[in-house]
Amino acid sequence: MPGTISGLLSVARSGLLASQRSVEVASNNIANANTPGYSRQRADLVTGQPVQLATIQLGTGVRVLDVDRVRDGLLDIAYRDATSVGSGHGQRLFVLEGIEAALAEPGTNGLGASLDRFWSSWNDLANDPTSTAARLAVRVAGQDVSSTFQRLSGSIDEARGSATLRLNGMVDELNQLTAQIGDLNTRILAAESSGGTAAVLRDSLDNAIDRIATISGVQVVQRSDGTAAVHLNGSALVDGGVARALSVTSGPPLGLALPGGTPVTPPASGALGSLLHAVNVELPGLQADLDAMAASVVSAVNTVHQTGTNPNGNTGVDFFDPAGVTARTIGLSAAVLGDVQEIAAGTPDGTGLYQAGQNDVALALAAVRDQAQAGLGGISVTEAYGNYVSDIGARVASTRTGQAAQESLQLQADIRRSEVSGVSLDEEMVDLVRFQAAYQASARMVTVADEMIGTLLQMV
């Protein structure tokens, strides 16, 4: 009762319990100093409800209202935004680096060197238009150009397939995380229904949202009841205990959908957004540019070659298969594959007969190297391929720069967040000393109350 020695003991008891709880919280912080995703906790101490005694109010001690997490939601948002954008750059870089490696430029195995050898082989044939060996070299060089185009097209197909697999895997992981968040929302509601903060569950919730940030940029709505709603471009993935699974819709283009086929606007950031853009836009664009170059080579070479007459006396023969007008399908014609003598070096005489020493067709084909092609926007195949290589190199370089910048922002955001939520062993040790001193002082209050009781008993 306030105003009595028993009231003094009650106040001392509250001080002992509050100090003990504070020491327990500090000890838990120290134990989890290196635990990933752990948020520093703090005992929320409040004064006891005072009691009116005549004209004065007497305090009733202290109590632990709650054990709070030390967390800043704005710092979480900054960290997740940087993480999302950075992971998007990482996935784009993975795709582009594969294409860049397949180009093998500069080097002897790239398409540039293959085309150079092809044009040069026509010059060699022009120098000796009756040579079977020179014709064999032209055919080999043509096959090399075809196989290199096919290899590059295959590398784009491989990159598309790999990106699609990654996309599906990330959607599966995202669904697991949203289901986990739905479960955590339910458990948080149950745990906090009687008051208090479920700090460990809330940490798990934030850790799951952090992981989602590496997959996709999402919008997170923190509810007043401790739960979180997760939205992707306005579509709810989680709200309360209900989670809805995403799926990848077949394309082209690939897309995202919720149960029932409800389409979801693709995210603008994060790994999902980058992979969808790569599969639906970037890789098809690179494939189209490569196909345009292959079609121009086929058209330009066949147009000139058809004007020549070969040693077999045939005119109008295609060097490349006219049906193979993509990088995936380009190849030599059946006639040239079947007989090297079907390769023409010059135009016929006035009567349409083969001229053994004529080399004007071979020279014209060697000159195709630098001829502007309508299908390439008025530039040569050589220039178009140079631009192609430069463009991919520039994309890789800019993506690397962007990734490095985002990694720096992510690191800074993580440091700022850790300064608030992370455990400082020095601070915890200071708190331990402070709580220990408070505990000792409360214990001394008990001793004083005991001595006072003893004094009263001696007076009886």
Describe the structure using short key phrases.
single chain, 460 residues, 4-stranded antiparallel β-sheet, 3-stranded antiparallel β-sheet, 10 helices, 11 strands, 10% strand
Kindly summarize this structure in a few lines.
Helix content is about 60%, strand content about 10%. With about 450 residues, it is an alpha+beta fold. A four-stranded antiparallel β-sheet has the order 5-6-7-8, covered by helices on one side. It has a three-stranded antiparallel β-sheet with strand order 9-10-11. The chain has a two-stranded antiparallel ribbon with strand order 1-4.
3D structure, described in words:
The protein has 460 residues and is of the alpha+beta class. The protein has ten helices and eleven strands. The longest helix is centred in the middle third of the chain and has 60 residues, at 132-191. The protein is rod-shaped, with a radius of gyration of 38 Å.
**What structural class do the secondary elements suggest?**
alpha+beta
C-alpha-based Rg, rounded:
38 Å
Order of helices and strands: HEEEEHHHHEEEEEEEHHHHH
The DSSP helix count reads 10
Q: Report on the biggest sheet.
A: 4 strands, antiparallel
Number of strands: 11
Average pLDDT taken over every residue: 88
Strand content: 5-15%
What is the helix fraction of residues, given as a range?
A: 55-70%
Low-confidence stretches: none
Cα-to-Cα separation, first versus last residue: 21 Å
Order the strands across the largest sheet as they lie in space: 5-6-7-8
Overall form: rod-shaped
